[in-house]
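Propose amino acids for all 178 sites.
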C-alpha cells in the first residue's frame, strides 16, 4: 500500500499543492468586495469629461490614507529665512536608508553659493565657512563637521549636542535652535 501511494498518489498531490501556492501569489490582490469597484462605463459617460473621469480613476486606484500627523496648513507653508552671514546653522539630520548620504554630499558639493564649501580631493569632510569668515560654519552635517554627535545621531541627541559641538569648534555665537 505504501509503495502504491508513493508512486500514484504523491505526484498529483504535490502538483495540486504547487498549484495552490502559485495561485496564492498570482491571484488578485484584493478578492471579492474588499476591492474598490469602478463605476460602469455608462455611468462614467453620464458624469463628465475625461478630466473628471481620470481624477475619479486615480482616486479609486490609490485610496487616501488618513494623516497620521495632521499638520496645520500654516505650519506646512511657512517660510523660514536662513541668514548664512549671521548666526543661523543648518543641522542636517541623517536618517539611514533614505538617501541621506547622497543629499548630504550634494549639500556640500553641488549647491551654488556665494562662498561654496571647500572640499579637498580624497577627503570626506568639507569646510563650509560663512562668507567673509574662515572659522564659523553654516552647516552641521556629517560632510562638514563629521559625526560630531555620534553615528546617526537622532533628533534628541542632536538637540542636546549641537550647541556644545559648535562651541568646541569655536562658533560660540551659534545658539539659535529651530
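Proposal:
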Amino acid at each position: 500500500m505504501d509503495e502504491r501511494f508513493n508512486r500514484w498518489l504523491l505526484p498529483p498531490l504535490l502538483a495540486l499543492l504547487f498549484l495552490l501556492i502559485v495561485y496564492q501569489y498570482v491571484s488578485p490582490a484584493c478578492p471579492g468586495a474588499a476591492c474598490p469597484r469602478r463605476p460602469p462605463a455608462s455611468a462614467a459617460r453620464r458624469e463628465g469629461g475625461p478630466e473628471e473621469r481620470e481624477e475619479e480613476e486615480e482616486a479609486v486606484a490609490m485610496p487616501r490614507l488618513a494623516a497620521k500627523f495632521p499638520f496645520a496648513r500654516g505650519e506646512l507653508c511657512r517660510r523660514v529665512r536662513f541668514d548664512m552671514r549671521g548666526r543661523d546653522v543648518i543641522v542636517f539630520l541623517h536618517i539611514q536608508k533614505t538617501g541621506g548620504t547622497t543629499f548630504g554630499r550634494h549639500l556640500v558639493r553641488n549647491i551654488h553659493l556665494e562662498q561654496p564649501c571647500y572640499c579637498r580631493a580624497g577627503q570626506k569632510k568639507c569646510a563650509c565657512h560663512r562668507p567673509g569668515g574662515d572659522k564659523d560654519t553654516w552647516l552641521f552635517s556629517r560632510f562638514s563637521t563629521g559625526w560630531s554627535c555620534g553615528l546617526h545621531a537622532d533628533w534628541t541627541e542632536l538637540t542636546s549636542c549641537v550647541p556644545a559641538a559648535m562651541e568646541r569648534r569655536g562658533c560660540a555665537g551659534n545658539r539659535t535652535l529651530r
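The longest helix spans residues 2-26. The beta strands are 90-91, 118-119, 126-127, 139-140.
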